[in-house]
Amino acid sequence: MPGEDRFSFGSRLKSVEELIGFGSRPPISLGQWQEKFRAMYGQRNAELNLSPSDIWLHLMEEAGELAADFRKEDYKKLWRDLPDVFAWLCAFANRTELLLEEVVWHKFPNVCPYCLKPESCSCIAENRSIMEDDALQQYRRKPYPETLDGWEEMFERIYGNVNTIQSSKGIGFHFMEEVSEVARELRREHHAELKNELADVLAWLVAVYHRAQAHQSGKPTTLSACIWAIYPGKCDKCGSCPCECENKARRKRRGSQPVEVQDQSSLPE
Ligand SMILES: [Zn+2]
Ligand SMILES: [Zn+2]
How many angstroms separate the alpha carbon of residue 109 from the centre of ligand 1? Predict the structure, then answer.
């Protein structure tokens, strides 16, 4: 799609060389998770020439599967599908050269951006507008959570209470609403709004995770553990980092092609 490179926000991401050899431990920070997914799939996505819209379509497909699992209360499948949404969220941030940590902190700087409460917000019922940027700016000066677990705790502290009284359908629909809002801002090329909606997708993905976890206590214990269970530093399908799925498929296609006969005249009659 023409003009999609306008969704490059200026890269401060690490080079691929720096990313490979990340080790076999789970990433700790949200930034490391994003980099981990770039090491796994950055090359493949670049070779497939996936645009931001292509990547968001992949995410929507996975989000739809997650919504179906959630509706059917099929938690076994949900633990499989939820990490895929996170993986494509990282892919989108990588493709648009956004740092998820900065994007999410801009919207949620340790307080609810609609009421400025640092915990137990219940303003969702009041349908408020987001606070003026000046009001949020002082909160953004503090460092953001150092770990994905820390982000998870922050969202739980602010929204955990109000989410416990929401229905699962309410949470699931809200998550899908945020996914569609990114699509809208992507189509309109509204960069600032797109970043805000991207932050909302992570916030509601955490809410989906917590609701699912409440239904099946004990496993997995953190969002990070849930993602690592499916993506332990390598592609879940080919088991490689970087992902080799496309290369394997290409080799397979080549291998299944019939051998060309060069000179028909030398064949026996
Ligand atoms: Zn609030
Ligand atoms: Zn693969």
Answer: 12
Other beta carbons within 10 angstroms of residue 203's beta carbon come to 20
Q: What is the pLDDT along the chain (269 residues), one digit of tens a residue?
A: 333 444 444 444 444 444 444 456 778 999 999 999 999 999 999 999 999 999 999 999 999 999 999 999 998 899 999 999 999 999 999 999 999 999 999 999 999 999 999 999 999 888 899 999 999 999 999 999 999 999 999 999 999 999 999 999 999 999 999 999 999 999 999 999 999 999 999 999 999 999 998 887 556 789 999 999 999 999 999 999 999 999 888 888 888 765 554 444 444 44
Report how far residue 179's alpha carbon sits from residue 88's, in angstroms, rounded to the nearest whole number: 12
User: From the CA of 1, how far away is ligand 2's center (Å)?
Assistant: 26
Q: Tell me the ligand closest to 157's alpha carbon.
A: 1
User: How many Å lie between the centroid of ligand 1 and the Cα of residue 81?
Assistant: 29
Q: Bin 146: left if φ > 0, else alpha if -120 < ψ < 50, else beta.
A: alpha
Position 115 in a domain: yes
Ligand nearest to the CA of 249: 2
Dihedral sign (CA 148, 95, 85, 130)? positive
Range of the domain at 81: 6-247
Nearest ligand to the C-alpha atom of residue 108? 1
Q: How many domains would you assign to the chain?
A: 1
Q: How far is the CA of 159 from the centre of ligand 1 (A)?
A: 8
- Which of 82, 60, 57, 67 is CA-nearest to residue 170? 67
Whole-number Å distance, alpha carbon 132 to ligand 2 midpoint, is 44
Q: Does 252 reside within a domain? A: no
In a domain, 188, yes or no: yes
